[in-house]
Amino acid sequence: MRLIAAIALCCTLxxxxxxxxxxxxxxxxxxxxxxxxxxxxxxxxxxGVVGPIQIDVPGTRVVHGSLARLGxxxxxxxxxxxAGAATVAGAAAGHPGSHYALVGASAKAEHRSNLTGVVxxxxxxxxxxxxxxxxxxxxxxxxxxxxxAWVGPEERPLAGAAVRGLHSVAPRATFLRxxxxxxxARCKEGALAAxxxxxxxxxAHGGLCAEAAVNAAHEQGLVGLELSDFELPDVAAGWIAxxxxxxxxxxxxxxxxxxxxxxxxxRRLDPRIPAAAATRARAAVQEIVGGLxx
Length: 294
Description:
With 294 residues, the chain is an alpha/beta fold. The protein folds into two domains: 101 residues, Rossmann fold (3-Layer(aba) Sandwich); 131 residues, 3-Layer(aba) Sandwich (Rossmann fold). The strands form two sheets. Strands 2-1-3-4-5-10 form a six-stranded parallel beta sheet. A four-stranded parallel beta sheet has the order 7-6-8-9, with helices on both faces. α4 packs across α5 and α4 packs antiparallel against α9. The protein is elongated. The termini are far apart.
C-alpha cells in the first residue's frame, strides 16, 4: 500500500515537475488592469462664419452659412463685404444669446451689447499702400517726374497717410489727389484723368469705386492698389474667435487692430509690379509691421 501511495504521489508531482524531478513553482499569470477612462473634454465652440472669412482656431468648429441659418450659435463672424452694421444688428437683436462680430467695419453706432465691430486701421493700410506705390512707381528712388494718384471721394487723412508712405521710399515723387464721387463711373473717369496727368500708380480706398479705378489703371497697363490689399481680416477674426473660445466675448463697441496686431501686411500685390520692386516692397512692409522701421 505504501508503494502504491508513493507511485500516486509521484504521478501527481509529475504534472508540476515530472516524476523524480525537482518540484518547480508555476509562474504566476499576468493580470491586465484597464487604464481609467479619460474624462471627455468640452465640445468645440461652434463659430458661425458668414462671407469670405477663413479661420483655424484650436477648440472651435467653424460652420459656414447665412445670417438667418446660423442665428443661435455662440459666436457669428460676419464679413462686412456681405452685410452692413444695421443688418447684423437686426440679427443680433433676434438672437440675444448669440454674439456677433462684424469683421471689417464699425458697429459702434448700433449700441448692441452682443455686437462688436472688428476694425482694421485704414490710415495704416493707406500708409502701406503709399509705400508700395513708391516702389512700384520708381523702384524706391523715384525722380520728380514720377507720379502716384489717390482716386475717389475726398478723404484727406487717408490720402495724407498714403503720402507719408510714398515719400518714405520715394521722397521726390509727386502725389496727385483726384477727388471724385463714389459712383464707379466717376471713379474710373478720375483714374483716367490722373493717368492723363502722368500718374503711373493709382491708389483707391475700397468698394466699387476702387474696383473701377483699379480697372482703369489695368486697362492702361499700370498698377492699381486698394487699401484692402494690405488688410488681413482673417487674422482679426481669428483673434475674436480665440477670445470667445476662452469665454471672452466683445460687444457694444469696436475692437481696433493696428500694425502690431498682425492684421495689416501684404494681402496681395498687383502682378504688374516688377518682381524686384515687389520683393523690396514686401520686405519694407514686414519691417514696419515688425516694428523695425518707424
